[in-house]
From TrEMBL, chains A, B:
Stored InterPro entries: Aldolase_TIM, N/Namide_PRibTrfase, NAPRTase_N, Nic_PRibTrfase-Fam, Nic_PRibTrfase_pncB, Nicotinate_pribotase-like_C
Alphabetical list of Pfam families matching this protein: NAPRTase, NAPRTase_N
Enzyme class: ligase
NCBIfam families named among the record's database cross-references: NAPRTase_put, PRK09243.1-5, PRK12484.1
Gene Ontology CC terms, in alphabetical order: cytosol
Reported modifications of this chain: Transiently phosphorylated on a His residue during the reaction cycle. Phosphorylation strongly increases the affinity for substrates and increases the rate of nicotinate D-ribonucleotide production. Dephosphorylation regenerates the low-affinity form of the enzyme, leading to product release.
Name of the protein in question: Nicotinate phosphoribosyltransferase
Function: Catalyzes the first step in the biosynthesis of NAD from nicotinic acid, the ATP-dependent synthesis of beta-nicotinate D-ribonucleotide from nicotinate and 5-phospho-D-ribose 1-phosphate.
EC number: 6.3.4.21
């Protein structure tokens, strides 16, 4: 199979995993428990301190990854040579294809502590192999989408653009751009993300381009010649006021935009706006960049800024660079072939046993509670939610067949739209940047 | 060229970059400045708050990436179709190969604010294309290596193992494992990292393996059958005391180790140590895991623990998930063909113009100052450092030819050894976990 959206057969995600997944598989194959049917659940015990909600991102990437989740001969030789797995296990892995079922929250959906974000059902063997990969994807992508969502709220109607790739691992940067768009961002500087996911790519020039030329005027002239007067010129390499004058002189009043990347952005934006207006460049946009986060964006609300470029704080989750998602066995077949809820009892790290349903209830069109219903398959099959409760679970994979609705570039746009709508349905405190409790409580019912 | 160490021709690092690198290239080709010789420098303006030093990691990965830094026909079509670049630029890119020179700090070296971590010399065209990629690699890898180094110091003689992959992007996890080893870690749970970089892989079982079985005893028996009595059994799924008893019952007193993943680790380790000793399992090791960071490791010094598994806080840089490294033009050829130092003057974001030398001076075998010497090529060529100053710069790439000494798996071990030695040469305050100033001051001399 050819490479697709970041996963290749050269580097299958099957080895982007912790060794113990394979040692467990190996032991389970040997003792006969590998085929026991299991339900694993991904959830988080808590949101980052004071956050009101989090946004799920990465499920579309999981579906991409599943298509490449198989081991090459080279991978199998590596595992075998290093005594991670036995010959029996090598044989079992040769034709591995996930044949189970994955259901969970929609991409772009808000989640809270204990939300059953993803449930994976299948044999122990196939479910255990997915643990690390699923967590890696969801933990990072959701951290970025959650930060993005707060920034987008703080930015109001002004578009936010991802410029953070240089502050993240080079592949993480690609996922971050995608997750940012799920969280409401309008574009990215990252070219590979734009190419793989069909995102809007942005960017014009760095300070080095101005410094390369003998004068700022030559640099601006070159850029306008290459990109047209609609381009955005970077105005803070030397003196901003003089740069703005030169910019309008070179491009004329139809200049697309100017960018400010240092200093007191609010007061500079105000001065530059007035200067542009005085020069007749009343439609020239102002974009600002420089270590922005949601608090800085909120503080810029009254400044005459048209768009934001956000970097470091976006790709590092604005103080919460990962979610605390875990992957826990909640139900499994016993030696008699009967499904039983299970839970570990580790101190402060226990989990709610059993498979789950998840709903959000509303009062006056505003969400007021997350309802998690835990029980056996039979119990859940006959469970009747109250009227008006929104079912939060969708089927991503059924018996190994991927639901393509949630994969690909359209799914990213759908996720972005879903995030906007679902956020509007939460009490407005969700959008507060003050630390506090989750926007709605979660009620867990054990049937 | 085949895939090598994480970079492939399917996904060349050439697009893991910001769009403006290509729009600048495009404009510079059009205006004739693209071939001007340039020196770019990577440095950081400050360390994360209160950190005493940082550790450079990722240079070996840069050399791997350079080998794949070229554009496929598909990439070129993408850039061209989206009007990022012109036909002239497409043609220029068709046979792109970096032919410049890269020198910088060794992998595993300590760095401080203003340290000229990497200097890239070549035409503007080729240097600008590398900006985003170099920063992505160094910013993330160094963030992880810096955190790892603090953890390793706090852990004393007890080995630290990377178990953080699930809390980072799936590719970032692979880089993190490598960077952790540069920072002094002894192994990783991440299989792809182990395979690509020849790292020691570790890991045995998760709680799900115990829950899968009808009893803890069956799970332990299965694991010992598959992995031998030298394995490490996870003892906190239910009740730790009873699990330890069962573990020794199943494996005998030659049991390799037990792992504790929850609760008050120090007091649990003490109880478990006494229990193991009483059961005759005096050589059974205790490994602990559970949201450890350098402070937790320091607090565990007196507890009878043998090794640590570190996850989230490692791969997220323990509060500093990225370094603030930037890539700035410091010298360039002007229209008359003469090299000139340059610097932007943006508020609080200016840089020191000119190319740099870097040395560390010592008193009584302890480093006392970082010396940065800035000047023209001629000035630096005749500069004589004082006796005993250690030259911090090595040649990574000379005229496009990679110095293989700094690439590959041996370079990772060399970097780890270098980090140990270089840290020993710093004043011991470097290893303090209290917030404070950098361990040594940096003196900048403009010739």
């Amino acid at each position: 199979m050819a490479a697709s959206r970041g996963f290749t057969d050269d580097y299958s995600p099957a080895l982007m995993t912790d060794m113990y997944e394979y040692t467990m598989l190996n032991a389970a194959l040997k003792d006969g428990t590998a085929n026991r049917n299991c339900v694993f659940e991904i959830y988080t015990r808590h949101l980052p301190e004071g956050r009101r909600y989090a946004v799920l991102a990465g499920t579309g990437r999981i579906l991409d990854a599943l298509a490449h989740f198989h081991l090459s001969d080279d991978d199998l030789a590596f595992l075998s040579d290093n005594k991670v797995i036995s010959k029996q296990c090598v044989k079992w892995l040769e034709n591995f294809h996930f044949s189970g079922t994955i259901r969970g929250y929609r991409e772009g959906e808000m989640f809270f502590p204990d939300s059953p974000i993803l449930q994976v059902e299948g044999s122990f063997a196939e479910c255990t192999l997915l643990e690390t990969l699923l967590l890696s994807i969801l933990n990072y992508d959701s951290a970025v989408a959650s930060a993005a969502s707060r920034m987008v709220s703080a930015a109001g109607n002004r578009p936010c653009m991802d410029m953070g790739g240089r502050r993240a691992n080079e592949w993480a940067a690609v996922s971050a751009a995608r997750a940012a768009v799920v969280g409401g961002f309008k574009g990215t500087a990252n070219l590979l993300a734009a190419k793989l996911y069909g995102l809007h790519a942005i960017g014009t020039a760095a300070h080095s381009f101005t410094l390369l030329h003998d004068s700022e005027k030559e640099a601006f002239t070159s850029q306008v010649d290459a990109l047209g007067v609609g381009t955005t010129l970077l105005t803070d390499t030397y003196d901003i006021e003089s740069a703005v004058r030169t910019a309008v002189e070179v491009a004329g009043p139809a200049l697309g935009g100017v960018r400010i990347d240092s200093g007191d952005l609010a007061s500079l934006a105000q001065r530059v706006r007035n200067q542009l207006d005085a020069l007749g460049a009343t439609n020239t946009k102002i974009t600002v960049t420089n270590d922005l986060d949601e608090y800085a964006l909120a503080a810029l609300q009254t400044a005459p800024v048209d768009s934001y470029g956000v970097g470091t704080m976006l790709v590092t989750g604005s103080g919460a660079p990962t979610c605390g998602m875990v992957y826990k066995l909640t139900e499994r077949e016993n030696s008699a072939g009967i499904m039983q809820p299970v839970a570990k009892k580790s101190k402060n790290k226990g989990n709610v046993p059993g498979r789950k349903l998840a709903y959000r209830s509303y009062e006056y069109n505003l969400a007021d509670c997350e309802h998690i219903i835990a029980g056996s398959e039979d119990q859940l099959a006959t469970y009747e939610p109250k009227e008006g409760w929104r079912n939060l679970l969708v089927d991503y994979v059924v018996d190994g067949v991927v639901n393509s609705e949630y994969q690909g570039n359209d799914a990213i746009i759908a996720a972005q739209e879903h995030r906007t709508q679902a956020l509007c349905e939460l009490p407005i405190t969700a959008q507060s940047l003050m630390k506090g409790d989750p926007a709605i409580p979660t009620e867990i019912t054990l049937l």
